[in-house]
Amino acid sequence: MAQPIRPPRRPAVAPGGVDRIVEGPKPKHAQLREILRRMADEELPPGAAIPSERELAERFGVSRLTVREAVGQLVADGVLTRVRGRGTFIARQRLDQQPYLMSFTEDMRRRGLTPTTELLRSGEEVPPPATAAALGLAPGEPAYRVERLRRADGAPLAVERGWFHPRMLPGLLDADLTGSLYALLAERYRVHLDDGRQTVWAEAAKSDTARLLGVPCGSPLLVFHRATSAKGQPVEQMTSWFRGDRYQLTMQLDRNVPGSGPEVPP
């Protein structure tokens, strides 16, 4: 499909020094932050490197401390991202995660991205007591354990570590686990997940997860812990670690608290 014709981008630093740092009431780091933000919005594509601290300090005639403060604020705002040992880059747009019961494969395809999955580990093991209780298993009864790395357009986005009810899904480990598990459950077992409960929290990436996701150890991650069922029967307990620089969560909020009755006007 033909791409729309867009007007040429204005250079981040225009000829003749139109974008320059001047003495005045606005702090120099704030002026530089605006210039770098325009660079991210109008000049450089996501994933591109920005000039080094030394280069920016020389170009705009400011101290490296001023550069560091401006860049640090843009990193905090999610406009830029730092990669240890490599430099600072224009941040890629975050994928907006909606609180729907949807598979990763379906979600990525809906966004026009190509999902791929690498099976890291699978086996039959006795789960922790909390997981066994969530799946309705007897003490000491084994469950299916599956760990996978999920990618979109080749970029690693999430690590999944989950447990599945073996009596609901006999022979699951013999199936191809590199596609959509939700589609597999529906097509092979006629199990359609229709209910779930999910908890989300932030966590710093531990070494093994950071390595799989290609991010520095300690990078921010969004963790989704989900238990799902079909017709009231527990099927899955899954924990997914998503890259914090690529994901955000959006929720519809309501002032009414469940069970609180009608809202009383102030």
Automatic annotation (TrEMBL):
Disordered, as annotated region: 1-24
PROSITE patterns associated with the record: HTH_GNTR
Location of the HTH gntR-type domain: 26-93
GO molecular function (one): DNA binding
Entry keyword set: DNA-binding, Transcription, Transcription regulation
GO BP annotation list: negative regulation of DNA-templated transcription
Keyword Flavoprotein: no
SMART domains membership: HTH_GNTR, UTRA
Alphabetized SUPFAM superfamilies for the sequence: Chorismate lyase-like, Winged helix' DNA-binding domain
Protein name (Swiss-Prot/TrEMBL): GntR family transcriptional regulator
